[in-house]
Amino acid sequence: METARLNEIVESYPTPTGKILGILEQVQREDGYLQKDVLKTLAEKLEVPLSELYSIATFYSFFTLEKLGRHVVTVCMGTACHVRGAPALADTLKALLKVEEDETTQDGKFQLTTADNDFTVTSARCFGACSMAPVLRVDNKIFGYMTPERIPAVLKQFGWEEDTHQNA
């Protein structure tokens, strides 16, 4: 993000209440994620420690420090979804989109992006849609009562083509 644009965003928040969250949300909305160099610049402009911005960015699940694919596929891993098959959904997505899990956080979360940056597969703790478990969200659209067999049809709605993403 250009410095001039970052200055505009900062200046548009004159009051301290919610200032940091609002600024981070707007930066992410425009850039797609919170870049390290932008966070450093923001820390200087806002006169707060960089660690404070990182704490906020890593505490709230809607912030991301990594660039995401054009479409974000999120598997709910809440209790209801987990016991009704969410891990199988995650495994199916990883296989179909050919993304390999190299690191999972302590709480079991993951975030994996396809080589072509079309899709990012991630997990969340709960969507609040337990009655439809297991649940999958693609961008902002919720798909309930998901099964591994239904995943290809869902992905095709977002431009996935089986022949270009099949495992070798």
Q: What does the secondary structure layout of this molecule look like, with pairings?
A:
Blueprint: H1 3-11, H2 19-31, H3 36-46, H4 50-59, E1 71-76, H5 79-83, H6 86-96, E2 111-113, E3 119-124, E4 136-138, E5 141-143, H7 151-156, H8 162-165
Parallel strand pairs: 1-3
Antiparallel strand pairs: 1-4, 2-3, 4-5
Characterise the protein shown here.
By secondary structure, the chain is of the alpha+beta class. It folds into 2 domains: 3-59; 71-165, Glutaredoxin (3-Layer(aba) Sandwich), CATH 3.40.30. It contains 8 helices and 5 strands, in the order ααααβααββββαα. The chain has helices at 3-11, 19-31, 36-46, 50-59, 79-83, 86-96, 151-156, 162-165; strands at 71-76, 111-113, 119-124, 136-138, 141-143. A 5-stranded mixed beta sheet has the order 2-3-1-4-5, covered by helices on one side. α1 crosses α3 (36-46) and α3 (36-46) packs across α4. It is elongated. It starts with a helix and ends with a helix. The model has no long low-confidence stretch (mean pLDDT 89).
